[in-house]
Amino acid sequence: MLTGGAAVATLAPRQGSGARGGRVCTLKYRCCRLAGPPITRVMRRPYHSLFRVPSPVHRRACGFIAAVALSLACAHSALAGSFSMSVQPGTATKDSYLRQDGPLEQNGDRNELELNTENDNKSRAIVVQIPYAGLAGKTVLQAWLRLSQFGGDAQTPIDACVYPLTETWTESSVSWLNRNGTTPWVTPGGTRGPSWSDRVLVSDASVGTEVSFQVGPILQAWQLGDLQDDGLLIRSDVATAKLNAQFHSSEGGTSTTKPRLVINYTDEPPALRNGWAEIQP
To answer: 58 near 90, Cβ under 8 Å?
Structure first.
């Protein structure tokens, strides 16, 4: 995988004269790999073997080759393996639901997680945090939070979004107003990041199935240190007539119906998010 590099193309007089004379384009490119030393390659070609165009174009063409060379360098990098793992709840897993019309109600020991949307301040939101290990120095490609739905009265689908939480919380004492006993959320209902990573339509048609939320961008941000891992928030931002869905919590259900994370990853470390290239005529 290419993370950065440089490519330089130069013009040099060609030895000889006549039809075989002229200039040679010397192309040197350098690829910085995620693992192992940088790769440097040099390519020399006479212009007439590369382009059959008037000489004023040659210099620009040589610069164009230098830009393309960075992508060519990737062919010399080793291929990364990709893997998948499913993370089931353990003793450190936390989940609960927050009830707007019971702002101090604590539901961390309940067997169900409730998602509710209602236009008279009776919404319910789900908070989940499933610790995972074994991904140090690896790159998350995709990830899903999967919840097993067992009930619901939402013939009209609930527009549910998943956000990263940005404050710590305690399972046994979290509520709509408070994240830790008497410590309030900055934003009631769970302080969250500004952007969701997935939207899912949840209805009674999905009862008896696993509902999957794509959370790969959030996990990758945790891996890169852009966000602190405070767990996930699932809620609907659309106020409608009463719609409700129930999912198994980590306290209820079986090993196949508890909340879980499914993570696809590669054994390469996270790529740099910027690089550079230098082109010289």
So the answer is: no
For residue 229, give Cα distances in angstroms to 5, 69, 167, 250.
32, 39, 9, 19
At which residue do the structure tokens 């450190």 appear?
Answer: 92
User: What is the phi/psi pair of residue 204, to 5°?
Assistant: -70, -15
d(CA 111, CA 48): 75
User: What is the per-residue burial (b if ≥16 Cβ within 10 Å, else e) of 131-150?
Assistant: eeeebeebbbbbbbbbbbbb
Least confident of 23-32, 195-204, 236-245, 272-281: 23-32
Nearest by Cα to 45 from 27, 67, 20, 63: 27
Strands 210-214 and 139-152: antiparallel
Residue 5 has which token pair? 């590099």
Global pTM?
0.69
Using CA atoms, how far apart are residues 228 and 219, in angstroms rounded to an integer? 10
Three-state SS for 128? strand
In the structure encoding, which two tokens stand for residue 54, read together?
């008037």
Give the type of residue at 60: R
Contact present, 128 and 259 (Cβ < 8 Å): yes
Nearest in space to 138 (alpha carbons), one of 268, 226, 35, 227: 268
Structure tokens at 228: 């602190």
C-alpha–C-alpha distance, residues 242 and 119, integer Å: 7
Q: How many residues does the chain have?
A: 281
pLDDT digits (tens, 9 = 90+) for 23-50: 444 444 444 443 444 444 444 444 333 3
Cβ atoms of residues 137 and 178 within 8 Å: no
